[in-house]
Amino acid sequence: MAVAFALAGGAARASVFTIGDDIIRVYSSSPPAQASACSSLKVSEILATPTSELDWVSLDCSFTLPAGAGPIRKPIVIESSFGSNVVLDCGHGALTPSYDFGPYRRIAVMVRSTRNSDLSWSVPSNVTIKNCEVGGRIRVRGIDAADAFAQSRALGNGFTAYAQNAAPTDVLLDTLHFVGHAGDDRGHVYFSPGVTFSTIRNSTFEGNRSTPEIYLDQESGHNLIKNNHFLGNPTGEREVIAVDGSAYNVIAGNYFSGLNHGGIYIYRNCGQDGVIRVQQPAFNQINNNIFFYNKYDGPDPAIWIGERDANVPGYCGEDDGYNFGSSASDADHAHDNVVAENRIFKFPLVAVTTPRFRMGGVRANYAWESYYNEAPTTSQEPRPSGCYVRTKTGARVYLRSGEAVGVLDDSHSGRRYGCADGTLIQSMVLPTSSVPFSCAISGTDAGCSTTPTCPGQTVKVAVAATCNLENPSYPPDYASVPWNVFSVFKPSDPDGSAAGVCGVNTDRGDTLEVSSGTKDFSPVMGWGQAATAYCHEHDVNGGDCAILGELLCL
Fold this sequence. Notes:
Layout: E1 4-6, E2 12-14, H1 40-47, E3 57-58, E4 63-64, E5 76-79, E6 87-95, E7 107-112, E8 114-115, E9 121-122, E10 125-134, E11 137-141, H2 145-154, H3 159-166, E12 169-178, E13 189-191, E14 199-201, E15 204-205, E16 208-209, E17 214-216, E18 224-226, E19 229-230, E20 233-234, E21 241-244, E22 250-252, E23 255-256, E24 264-267, E25 285-287, E26 290-293, E27 303-305, H4 325-328, E28 337-340, E29 343-346, E30 357-359, E31 368-371, E32 374-377, E33 387-390, E34 396-399, E35 404-411, E36 413-420, E37 423-426, E38 430-431, E39 433-441, E40 448-450, E41 460-468, E42 485-490, E43 501-506, E44 511-514, E45 518-520, E46 531-536, E47 545-553
Parallel strand pairs: 3-5, 4-6, 5-7, 6-10, 7-11, 10-12, 11-13, 12-14, 12-15, 13-17, 14-18, 15-19, 16-20, 17-21, 18-22, 19-23, 21-24, 22-25, 23-26, 24-27, 25-28, 26-29, 27-30, 28-31, 29-32, 41-42
Antiparallel strand pairs: 1-2, 8-9, 33-34, 35-36, 36-37, 36-38, 39-47, 40-46, 41-47, 42-45, 43-44, 43-46
Helix pairs in contact: 2-3
């Protein structure tokens, strides 16, 4: 919705930016709550040697493995709301289950929701597992398979919200070392349908794996995978990270090797087990990762958006009969995903003959964005990750770490958003200021230019100008021109010579020009401090032009 901004003299302009639909969580500066420490009796239970696969520990308290103790041989289960705020700190000791956990093979930790007597779900939140050597797998689980089958059909497009409300949220896996297990070579972390706002960071994945190291299942979203090392040996034919019908995730600052069967694949399974996939795998960000290749130069890419559109599963028909989700369309619908600052390291460094970034297959059109990717590169040095900002007006900006962007609110104010190693930082509400500019020229084809600059630490958020491309007289009223629009008051006369042009060139190298009518300049606004506005005309009666405008700063 356009919002008017009052200016001197009573004129007004349309607003430039409003923040987009992306969910940005702002956390309190105070530390989150933590469950009380486990009793001595519970500690003894945790450290006892298991006797069967039925011998597991329900953890509803915070536990730190004593120095020199362990390894923990029992599966740890953190479940229901009673598991909220639990911290499991291994102190760099080991979690190595001796037995399977029921039907789940080699589970070291299970974080799961449980059913209440009224069939509602009791959900754990704010769970931390850190500083562990994990000789097994971690599974974060919400709804079960039977419920997913039934509710995906009954709830239609409301199934995503149902799955997310029923699944664990705010689960942190931090500084873990996954070493594999002789009894199971499957991937190490599984987020089930609906898991949200959870993080896997600062961890190392090693050992054999026949399935993806990390699997983000349908209807999950807003998860973060950051600053991990994926060094495992692929024994099967699966990618390292699977994003299956999951949205709004960020995968940033990771190091990948063992890429013989692909790196990060974004897709949506269709029909598997009869469950309808509702959410589309959209608005994910894959930023600032390193993909290391030694000998492999085959067809499987580092990043593949819409992988199942090229490799159509054989079970797509199992969810037929409904007019929504994967039942209505077998296509992946992987749209609005961002791929930025990723590096492909080929050793020895030669031209990468197979594209490492691949988009789509044969069944759908894809909108994706690519910024600053390097293939091949000579650098493997870690660097801070950037941030992506998307606004409702359609402006899309990728900030490298240390950069900032200005976003207007619905008044003479707005906010600045800065990027610090993948974290988008929001300022307090700030006032705007304006910098007028003008230039005029007569009798020369060279034209004229002017470079208004925002003062101090402010950044530009909008520009508006009107141009006369036939004579050097300033147009009568530029204040009526909407923000981020250049309007040609009078175009160059069509007398056989080249037309006149007015335009803007930002300090990030973006240039947009207009010769008649109006043009929206939103894509080049919102960051940096300077914008060079210019006009020129090549006419048989001499080059004459004038430009009059205003730069808005925040």
